[in-house]
Here is the input.
Amino acid sequence: MINLKTIFRLGLVSFISLPASSQKPVPTQTKLPNIVLIFIDDMGYGDVGCFGSTQYNTPNIDRLASTGIRFTNFYVAQAVSSASRAGLLTGCYSNRVGISGALGPNSSIGINADEELIPELLSPSGYKNAIVGKWHLGDHYHFLPLQNGFQEYFGLPYSNDMWPVNYDG
Here is the structure.
């Protein structure tokens, strides 16, 4: 069963969580919902149709939004990739979890293994968690998604414009 702490944090996921198919079917009224959160860098609140954009055509995102729950009050302490992702996945102020700014390749810091991330809260309820896209919370092995509660990961460990060779970060 998902507790109140988890429900509050459900608005802070940046991945796909699906109930495990190998478990016994759950009666319809208690079936766990699929959770999909889309976290996009450099996008304003009003840049998609479901939030009023008239400049961009976003039919797929609009369709997802129309059939789900939209969490509309997430604020980040820093408008920077790594710090905002740390806040999103932990539910904590990014400076408190030791990430302030954008991490570069081979950074000595990353998401702390002692922090409880959203997928680690969801897994005991039967969810399988995946992340697709930019991780940007450390590229050393122990910082990566598969070591932090995700069962599947397909993406980049840092920004596409950051490369380990000749990075001036």
